[in-house]
Write a structure and sequence with these properties.
6-stranded parallel β-sheet, binds 3-acetylpyridine adenine dinucleotide, single chain, alpha/beta
């Protein structure tokens, strides 16, 4: 059987990390695409030379021509501009919307059967716009945010309780922004509800609130520390988990920005929800019971996403 083909649109910090991870895991042959000339070719050459040392077989190429992504099975999109200190994800809207238009067309014309994972911010609006511009079915276009946001939440919980991160199952819903909804009632430490674990370990409710707050601002904390650009290791590894679920038909339940129609009281919106990923792409959205406070927090978050979609429609009349 021929190797799978993975196209990475945007070969910057996340794109390069994605290529390295995908190659190490021998997920398939990799094409790095970017508008910057020479850069994807240079990264491809550099990464190819890891092969003999790390012992992976993967053909890695760099390109500035969309024709080279033809027939890709998975496309991961990071093209665009990342945040600088002081910028919100929403500040990126105008610039990255134009980028989504060219990327969407590139995908439509060259690999319309691919499973597409968008990472470009502001995520929930960009994945929606990318789907609109590409014309692919909704189940084949998904956004990466929840896997990362829950990994951040899980990391902070593991540190607080001084337990292995492997035993933490943290749950985050909603848009990828400061209004995201870390859901304590569905977060567990090896099956023990976080609130029960907090009592056992003597962790106060205020401290749990601080962890929720830190999770919400987790991306901004890294932007502030880096001083130039945003997080890339964990965002890349999160998208790889989603691509593996698709390629392996694993039916994993992962928090993703998926198209939600009818569930959670939503009518045609991309937002972070527990999603089953298998060979059919996003095969199902799991609707969980929420408490009143969680419901109203989710509403604030989805209202913020809806506002961004309206802004996109104002910027590009073809989306209206
Ligand atoms: P960066 O290292 O700047 O890479 C972006 C690449 O996109 C650059 O190499 C650009 O040359 C390239 N590019 C720009 N315009 C185009 C175009 N029209 N076509 C093809 N390539 C283009 O950024 P990064 O890799 O650090 O981040 C990429 C995106 O991911 C940004 O929008 C970030 O805000 C976003 N991001 C999202 C998350 C989520 O959790 C959703 C986390 C971290 C970063």
């Amino acid at each position: 059987m021929a190797r799978k083909k993975i196209a990475l649109i945007g070969s910057g910090m996340i794109g390069g990390t994605l290529a390295h991870l995908a190659a190490k895991k021998e997920m398939g042959d990799i094409v790095l695409f970017d508008i910057a000339e020479g850069m994807p070719q240079g990264k491809a050459l550099d990464l190819s030379q890891c092969g003999p040392i790390e012992g992976f077989d993967a053909k890695i190429t760099g390109t500035n021509d969309y024709a080279d992504i033809a027939g890709a099975d998975v496309v991961i999109v990071t093209a665009g501009v990342p945040r600088k200190p002081g910028m919100s994800r929403d500040d990126l809207l105008g610039i990255n919307l134009k980028v989504m238009k060219s990327v969407g067309e590139g995908i439509k014309n060259n690999c319309p059967d691919a499973f597409v994972i968008c990472i470009t911010n502001p995520l929930d609006a960009m994945v929606w716009a990318l789907r609109e511009f590409s014309g692919l079915p909704h189940n084949k276009v998904v956004g990466m945010a929840g896997v990362l946001d829950s990994a951040r939440f899980a990391t902070f919980l593991a540190w607080e309780f001084d337990v292995s991160v492997k035993d933490v199952n943290a749950f985050v819903l909603g848009g990828h922004g400061d209004t995201m909804v870390p859901v304590l009632s569905y977060s567990t430490i090896n099956g023990i509800p976080v609130k029960d674990m907090a009592k056992i370990k003597g962790v106060s409710e205020d401290r749990l609130d601080e962890i929720v707050k830190r999770t919400r601002g987790g991306g901004g904390e890294i932007v502030g520390l880096l001083g130039n650009g945003s997080a890339y290791y964990a965002p890349a590894t999160s998208a790889i988990a989603m691509a593996e679920a698709y390629l392996g038909d694993s039916k994993r339940i992962l928090p993703c920005a998926s198209y939600v129609e009818g569930k959670y009281g939503l009518d045609g919106l991309y937002v972070g929800v527990p999603t089953v990923i298998g060979a059919g792409g996003t095969e199902d959205v799991i609707e969980i019971e929420l408490g009143d406070e969680e419901k109203s927090n989710l509403k604030v978050s989805t209202d913020a996403v809806e506002e961004l979609l309206e802004a996109c429609k104002g910027l590009d009349s073809s989306l209206a």
